[in-house]
Amino acid sequence: MIVVICTGSMAHSARFYWRRLGESRRLVNCVSSGRFPFLPRTLEMKKLWELPESLQRKLVEARLCKHGTLIGEMSSPHSSIYTFDLGANASPRYVVAKGIQVEETMSDEERRKYFARALYEVNNAYAVFHHPLVHRFFDVDIILGVPFLLSRKRDATLRDVIAEGPVLLPEALSIAVQMAHSLSYCAQKGIVCHQDLKPENVFIDFINEHFSVPAEYPLACRVHLADFELANAYLVLRHPYGSRPYMAPEQYCNLHANTLPDFSRADVFAVGVILFEMLTGGVHPIGERTSLIWPRPAEGQSRKWLREDPWKQWLKSGAQTSTGDKSVDPETLLIIQDCLEVDSAMRPSKQALEVRLLERLRTVHKDTYDTLVLTLEYFDNISNESEELGWPYYAERLESLNKAFSDRDPP
């Protein structure tokens, strides 16, 4: 993000503004109402990306103060992520605000594409937000021309869980089942292909930290499928790609041809890769530890993994699993290998994959199987009830967001 240096009267105005911010609580009410009438005239007509980073942060903090104290900020290639803390007695305690990262040096066309990408993601997420296995935004906001998407902060990502070492087989199977179940639900709602399924986009809540369950409770993790920025992009945007370690062969195809390939089982391929990583503590079927080679190679690692050639070569050779690690349960390995079939027609469907994973789980750990089946039925009932009731508040907020950026076509 570009930092704009304040000089002269603008710098004086900024200092004056922040002195007032520290002195007067009434500013919170002004910002929360969506207006910034107290901004100096040199700043009040600015867009958020035209202001210094420190000023951006304070404006976001003031506007979203009802969600707690701002305790963290980080950036991704397209977003600025702000974390708020409501305190130890609140549930949920942490809220994440995802703002679209726009730089002053961008052209109007580049900004338009960034905003369109945000709308595409939030509308995709809205189509499937009723299910408890899908991570959802609970509110949207616009701060000085920038859309912000608000959601609850989860305990971890699946990447964090994998980094702790190999996941026990019953838990790995239960996580994979939840992924397959959520993908099937999304498909029923029109999201044929998530297209960027990877451990970073699978959020995890640790059940014993949110519910009073006995020590021997068989389920440890609850899955929340997240990040629908590329969902159905192959169809809507003619963009087939995802993240290379998890891309199925069909995601390398030329979508300008007359006939589109079947993408309905591309996510099944990704589930196979992720399940292998869970059982090996982060080793990709290609034989390398994923976190050391992607998305940025660790020191001493080859930069070849940044190119698509080695990944395509692995696929051309049949997407074989490495044989160096013998810790993977043989029966589960067969399921993984079926998921990694190069011919998508040979892979199980999402529903068939869920059935096979459940069958294996029942054999491995009956208590986990029984608990998971009941949990999935409970979640499905919640989803059905939620769909019937609707969520008028969020629907209105989303409609306002879409209207505000209605002139921005998809990228």
Description:
There is one protein chain. The protein is 43% helix and 11% strand. The chain has 15 helices and 8 strands. It has 2 domains: 49-152, 2-Layer Sandwich (Phosphorylase Kinase, domain 1), CATH 3.30.200.20; 156-295 and 309-385, Orthogonal Bundle (Transferase(Phosphotransferase), domain 1). Helix 7 (169-188) runs antiparallel to helix 9, helix 7 (169-188) runs parallel beside helix 14 (366-389) and helix 9 (266-280) runs antiparallel to helix 12. By secondary structure, the chain is α+β, with helices and mostly antiparallel strands. A hairpin with a 2-residue loop joins strand 4 and strand 5 (146-152). The model is unreliable at 1-34 (pLDDT under 50). The protein is globular. A 5-stranded antiparallel β-sheet has the order 1-2-3-5-4, sandwiched between helices. Strands 6-7-8 form a 3-stranded antiparallel β-sheet. The longest helix has 24 residues, at 366-389. It has helices at 8-23, 26-32, 41-44, 53-63, 108-128, 158-163, 169-188, 233-236, 266-280, 290-293, 309-316, 330-339, 350-364, 366-389, 392-404; strands at 69-75, 79-85, 94-100, 137-143, 146-152, 156-157, 202-206, 221-225.
